[in-house]
Amino acid sequence: MSARTTNVLLVGVGGQGVLLASDILSQVAMEAGHDAKKSEVHGMAQRGGVVSSHVRFGERVWSPIIPEGGADVLLAFEQAEALRAMHLVAPGGSAVVNTQRIIPPIAAGKDWDYPENPLAEVRARIPATVAVSAREECRALGNEKMVSVLLLGALSASLDFDEDLWRKVIRARVPRGTEDLNWRAFQRGRELASA
Amino acid sequence: MEASTRQEAPIRYLLSGNEAVALGCREAGVRLGAGYPGTPSTEILETLARLVPEMYVQWSPNEKVGLEVAAGAALTGARAISTQKHVGLNVAADPLMTLSYMGVEAGLVVVTADDPELHSSQNEQDNRHYARFAKIPMLEPSCSQEAKDYVAAGMEISERFDTPVLLRMTTRISHSKGIVEAGELRSVAVKGFRKDARKYVMVPANARARHAFVEERLDRLRAFAEETELNRVEWGDRRVGVVAAGVGYVQARELLPEASYYKLGLGWPLPLEGIRRFAAEVERLIVIEELDPFIEEQLLAEGIACEGKSLTGLLGELTPGRLGKGLAAAGLIDTAPAPAGAAATVLPRPPVLCPGCPHRSLFWGVKPKKGNVFGDIGCYTLAALPPLQTIDTCLDMGASIGTAIGSSKVATDGKPIFAAIGDSTFLHSGMTGLLDAVYNDADITVLILDNRVTAMTGGQEHPATGKTLMGKAARQVDLPTLVKALGVDHVQVVANHDQPAVRAAVEAAVAHAGPSVVIARAPCALMPVKIREIPYRVDPERCVGCRTCLRTGCPALSLTGGLTAKGLRQVVIDEDACTGCSLCFQVCPHEAIRLTSEEVPV
């Protein structure tokens, strides 16, 4: 196991399932034998604000916060949030971006507009960016509430964890009765990112 | 390395600092926990209620009562824990200061969860000062494992030194997850209440003697600080020696992996002699601490030369970025390359009142009165932001009523004066303010925003919800009866989402001379259950793009529709987000908003 710490930054909007995804990822990292830490701020985030979660794993993790410009992978649940966080990604890092746009009420005022094409801007900064339309993909699978698991599947393509371990942790964390469907969503995400 | 494959391997969990404190309570045989919800402390008691059924836990109406409840258990010989956020300890400071004199019969740990960076608070006060102020020992965990271990350590110190112990968490410790190895469960018997007037009746004659005890105890605690394994020296490169506790320690280890460390688990009193010896062995002594120069000033007062706030600053969290800049400026690390490639601008995404939030409907009805609205602590503080902008102050729990009274006694502009306060906050510390308004005949209108839950902190029970923290049915306080009993004659109850009713009630309350109360009653849109009534939609045949509905600030509405004949953008309602509260339907001047269930003529 490498002594280097791997840093995964997950960002999105309150209510999108960012925390479930970072919970599953850090549990997988721990069960794979790493030291692991994850950090986020609760509270105001619930009210439609920005949510970001830092997951770090390796031989020994000290700080629960990813150093600025130190994220190896960015997983963005929303396009404009990918834009907000992209400068935190290390040179040579990669990103998985959900194409969903959540337009905040502030964009209805005269001072702010939702960015024209966030994904293109992110791609210009991070060439290794995979775009995933997670809502549409989940809808096709029959349940929209699997966005975070599908995105984890896409993220998993750039991390070195055993598929069985992912399956075990995901099964334990998703609502009973949805285990198989969620596993299909994970595999679909993995397939999209590997293509 | 698979967790728990071998039988003797300890069980390992991935726990937040707060969950780890709860596990620590279980392992240390804690019998009672009490507190009032407050970010970032709330999950400690919630986790205990969910996972440790053998323990008694409760929400108290406020932190003062919570600490008194915990103290009562400790005086009865049962280990107890009291939890609150940093500003909550201000409310509980009165019992805390004298509990220091009384001491305990069984262990008492008082958790303060501070919020550097003000992620969800009205100030970023540094509660380490309370340890010195109350002359009680303080433990500062730097990770989840220590958060768990320090509960048992705190109980032992509490019992050995006859003192309450402060366990100081911060948001980053409370809400970060890390690996925790479970320990053994300890069963601790309840000793029972032992009468001891000289120790437990703090009248002047007894308290004078106990003050002498407190000073003598402090000498023993200082000696303990020098020898305890909670503090340790980690030798590395002796050119730089770091003194740090809590989150400062892990942030420093990240950036200065080669340095020598004096790691403090006992954050007060300090092991000054140990640090003096450590300082003599290193070339540069650096104190890395968040917020105030609490350690630095004590070292300087002892003549131990060190650097601290000149590197770390006084504001906010000690993030790797901030700390890195300070360390680079001091020549301790190479200057980190600035993060590159940030977007020129990204639209802000401030927190907003949820779709269907009953507060929005109430404030929409209050706004036309153009009064001064003294606000309080809760989700409704978000009504201070555009476009509602109907809350004018936010000070502390319960402050809305007192500040409204004071203003009413001197204001000369004739504007109506409102106090806006949530149900949980009213029961926390608004009742005495209302009693003041009655007693001193203040001409104010108190709006009690009765959504039947402590919403801001994630939906906790309180005395008006009919349920306890442990899920038992409870007597439900009746707010109209309570308000009348306090002496208010003009009391109205209104449903928030009924705009004509809200306006009429506000009108009548303002017209009344003297204190009046409007209890605006509608359940929180999210908790305890997410409300999903038939959603509304915009009829594109009728929407003229006037944006009246957008002025409610509902996040389910967006300006993303087609263009009208005059080229104005039409509004779209996100049917997945809409709860069917009907406010936009009520305010639309063009009848362009309809239920999705309605047939629309083509």
Describe the structure.
The complex is a heterodimer of chains A (195) and B (602). Chain A has a single domain (6-106, 115-194), classed as 3-Layer(aba) Sandwich (Pyruvate-ferredoxin Oxidoreductase, domain 3). With 195 residues, chain A is α/β, with parallel strands linked by helices. Chain A is globular and about 50 Å long. Chain A has helices at 18-31, 79-85, 118-125, 134-141, 147-156, 163-173, 179-194; strands spanning 6-13, 35-40, 50-58, 71-76, 89-98, 129-132. A 6-stranded mixed β-sheet of chain A has the order 2-3-1-4-5-6, with helices on both faces. Chain B contains 21 helices and 22 strands. Chain B has 4 domains: 12-227, Thiamin diphosphate (ThDP)-binding fold, Pyr/PP domains (Rossmann fold, 3-Layer(aba) Sandwich); 232-329, Rossmann fold (3-Layer(aba) Sandwich), CATH 3.40.50.920; 358-521, Thiamin diphosphate (ThDP)-binding fold, Pyr/PP domains (Rossmann fold), CATH 3.40.50.970; 532-602, Alpha-Beta Plaits. Chain B starts with 11 loop residues before the first strand and ends in a 7-residue tail after the last strand. In chain B, helix 1 crosses helix 7, helix 3 (63-75) packs parallel to helix 5 and helix 17 runs parallel beside helix 18. Helices cover 35% and strands 17% of the residues of chain B. The interface between A and B is large, with 55 and 60 residues.
